[in-house]
Design goal:
- With 313 residues, the chain is an alpha/beta fold.
- It folds into 2 domains: 5-192, Rossmann fold, CATH 3.40.50; 228-268.
- 20% of the residues lie in helices and 17% in strands.
- The protein has helices spanning 57-61, 65-68, 84-93, 163-171, 228-243, 248-255, 259-268; strands at residues 24-29, 69-78, 97-107, 126-134, 149-153, 176-179, 188-192, 306-308.
- It has an 8-stranded mixed β-sheet.
- The longest helix has 16 residues, at 228-243.
- It binds S-adenosylmethionine.
- S-adenosylmethionine binds at residues 12-14, 30, 32, 52-53, 55, 158-160, 180, 182, 192-194, 201, 309, 312.
- Belongs to the MT-A70-like family.
- GO terms for molecular function: methyltransferase activity.
- Keywords: Methyltransferase, S-adenosyl-L-methionine, Transferase.
- Residues 232-280 form the Helix-turn-helix domain.
Length: 313
């Protein structure tokens, strides 16, 4: 058989992993998994889609993650549903033991499941992040009230939700390393062949870029305590609508939350509350131009460092 691009062996061009004094305490990794059926349309490197180069299982396992992490560390590892066993294999090869997972539930704008996913047996609307521990280290206190699910809308091909960072930063300590990063996160060390600011990630030029938070409110018990992550997310949605002219009463009606809950979420979102009275209409004159500062976790992170490799694909 004449070799074609799909049958030629590929070896990834792999740059050294970054290091930091004492080692990274938390690693987030979203590897370019190579699927067995590389001619299938779902394979990331499919020629027609030209997304990004992939690595085989042995190459991923051989990455010296154990050497650049602290004695006690957390790992968040994205893995496609079909490659769950390979994911656990990688997690263990990097020196971690599997303890739990966080599920990303992909939602439509109205909050329903986003059934545009692919899948041979089922249409996938979820994607797991395997959570592993090296040595011994509990999650930070807010994790105990953080649910292991992220519900947001999809963005461009293989792009993961930014809400992952809020969840990780509130549940696991820095210094933080993101492997196979495409968009550097402030306070994190990014490594990956598309992580340079001047590199335009390939996925972005393809159709389907949308994303953003889902625009419905989860139902809450009257005195339910919110995790920092959920409170931050709800605050962002409420602030956006408040700044567009909605009143606190309207927001309470729409969300089903008490006036008091809406007020405190708006305050947590950093917005200056308007005086009582008729709700302002969002007009060019009335809509504030100020961008809302969303409250973040206290800065306890390593200075951003970046290691990049030359683009191999
Ligand atoms: C699944 S994507 C990561 C998506 C990213 N987490 C996001 O949310 O946008 C995998 C990334 O690994 C990169 N990659 C592929 N081969 C690589 C290699 N040999 N070394 C470093 N990065 C590589 C790809 O270019 C791609 O950016």
């Amino acid at each position: 058989m004449t070799p074609t691009i799909d049958t030629l062996p590929q070896t990834a061009d792999i740059a050294p992993l970054p290091t930091i004094d004492g080692g990274f305490q938390t690693v987030l990794a979203d590897p370019p998994w190579r699927f067995a059926n590389r001619t299938g349309k779902v394979a990331p490197e499919h020629r027609r889609l030209d997304r990004y180069g992939t690595m085989d299982l042995e190459e991923i396992k051989a990455l010296p993650v154990g050497d650049v992490t602290a004695k006690n560390a957390h790992l968040y590892l994205w893995v496609p549903n079909a490659l769950l066993l390979e994911g656990i294999d990688v997690l263990q090869a990097w020196g971690f033991r599997y303890v739990s997972n966080v599920i990303w539930a992909k939602r439509r704008k109205d909050g329903g499941p986003d059934g545009r996913g692919v899948g041979f047996y089922f249409r996938n609307v979820t994607e797991p992040i395997l959570f592993g521990v090296k040595g011994s280290m509990r999650t930070l206190a807010p994790a105990r009230s953080t649910v292991n699910m992220i519900e947001t809308r999809k963005r461009e091909h293989s792009r993961k939700p930014d809400e992952q960072y809020d969840l990780i930063e509130s549940c696991s300590p820095g210094p933080y390393l993101e492997m196979f990063a495409r968009y550097a996160r402030p306070g994190w060390t990014a490594w990956g062949n598309e992580s340079d600011a001047e590199v335009e990630p390939k996925g972005r030029s393809h159709r389907g870029y949308a994303g953003g938070a889902i625009e419905t409110f989860p139902s809450l018990e009257p005195n339910e305590r919110l995790s920092p992550w959920l409170s931050d997310r709800l605050a962002r949605i409420l602030v956006e609508e408040y700044e567009a002219g909605a009143s606190i009463d309207q927001l309470a009606n729409e969300s089903g939350y008490s006036i008091q809950r809406v007020r405190s979420l708006l305050e947590a979102g950093g917005v200056t509350l308007r005086g009582r009275g008729r709700p302002k209409k969002a007009t060019a004159e009335s809509a504030p131009v100020k961008k809302v500062a969303v409250k973040k976790q206290p800065a306890k992170k390593a200075a951003p460092r970046k290691a990049t490799t030359k683009r191999s694909n």
